[in-house]
Design goal:
This protein is mainly beta. The chain has a domain at 206-305: Beta Barrel (Thrombin, subunit H). It is 3% helix and 48% strand. The strands form seven sheets. Strands 20, 21, 22, 23 and 24 form a five-stranded antiparallel sheet that branches. A four-stranded antiparallel sheet has the order 3-2-1-29, with no helix packed on it.
Length: 313
């Protein structure tokens, strides 16, 4: 179901090595930023943010400002919370935030202190850095590569580690759209679920035949439906898509047309205001499901490989 909006949706947004692309389902892709290769993108209620090593770009649909460069830092991850706060994590371990749609940014200094004084174990060749932000009932949770999840309720002045049972090599934290105490996390060893705002985590393995977890779409319901991209090898080689119809208790592998495995890990996303719609970008093809991942329709072919994906319809 779509909520009432006061802005024009921007369609599906792909972060690719060729730039930032947008397209309508079945339409022709349009490069909206071609200055850099993009690694991450997020969208929520009229505001979009995308990150590359050249900076962060913001789309303000509410204010009528199209994609524009907003922050000059080497960005590795981006996020928007339901409160409308923007976050951008840099590859050198800093985390920036904006509460006015990217007009002004401030660094959360406490993140650097956590990384500087923590004992982390990132993947070989990587350094600890913020890779994800999710809103909690009070404050925010961030994922630190090699350090698991951390919580603050005082805007980053103090931090508490919330990683009991969670692989420290975390990739991304996903907040449940309606259940504020329920979280999901993808990591190098699979997917994890928390029912207590991240204090404790349970690994979900039933039916999965690989463990390097990528992106996740959470479709709220009773029970939740989940669509997960996951690969055999880091950093995302030999990928597949799995679906869970019971909130992650068990998983089944999806077949898209005649394919159920790809050289690169696919991307999945759910538009923030839809409960049953999910998209998959697998190699050069785009697929959609309007029934919580049960059935799939091919929408596009000939697309560049997506590093991340978001959507507004």
């Amino acid at each position: 179901m779509i909520s009432k909006r006061v802005y024009e949706p921007i369609g599906i947004v792909l972060a690719t090595d060729e730039g930032l692309l947008t397209l309508e389902p079945g339409g022709t892709p349009k490069i909206v930023v071609d200055e850099s290769a993009f690694t991450d993108v997020d969208y929520y209620d009229g505001i979009g943010i995308a990150g590359s090593l050249d900076g962060a770009w913001v789309h303000n649909g509410r204010g009528g400002r199209l994609w524009h460069k907003s922050l000059n830092e080497a960005i590795g991850s981006v996020a928007i919370t339901p409160s409308g706060v923007l976050f951008a994590g840099t590859i050198d371990g800093k985390l920036f935030t904006s509460e006015n749609q990217g007009d002004d940014w401030s660094e959360i200094e406490g993140v650097k202190h956590v990384i500087r004084h923590g004992r982390f174990s990132p993947p070989k060749g990587e350094k600890p850095r913020p890779v994800s932000v999710a809103e909690a009932k009070e404050g925010i949770l961030i994922g630190i590569l090699g350090g698991g999840s951390w919580h603050t309720r005082d805007n980053g002045d103090s931090w508490l580690r919330r990683s009991d049972g969670l692989d420290p090599k975390i990739h991304k934290i996903y907040a449940h759209p309606t259940q504020r105490d329920r979280l999901f996390a993808t990591a190098s060893s699979g997917i994890y679920r928390s029912e207590d705002e991240g204090y404790s985590w349970i690994q979900s393995l039933g039916g999965l035949d690989r463990s390097f977890a990528g992106s996740l779409a959470v479709l709220p319901g009773a029970p939740d439906s989940l669509v997960l991209s996951i690969a055999r090898h880091a950093p995302g080689e030999i990928g597949a898509i799995f679906r869970s119809a019971n909130g992650g208790v068990s998983w089944s592998r999806l077949m898209l047309e005649s394919e159920d495995e790809w050289e690169h890990i696919p991307c999945v996303t759910r538009p923030w205001d839809w409960e049953d719609l999910v998209f998959i970008a697998a190699e050069d093809k785009l697929y959609a499901s309007h029934d919580r991942g049960r059935n799939w329709l091919k929408l596009n072919t000939g697309l560049p490989l997506a590093n991340a994906m978001s959507a507004s319809l």
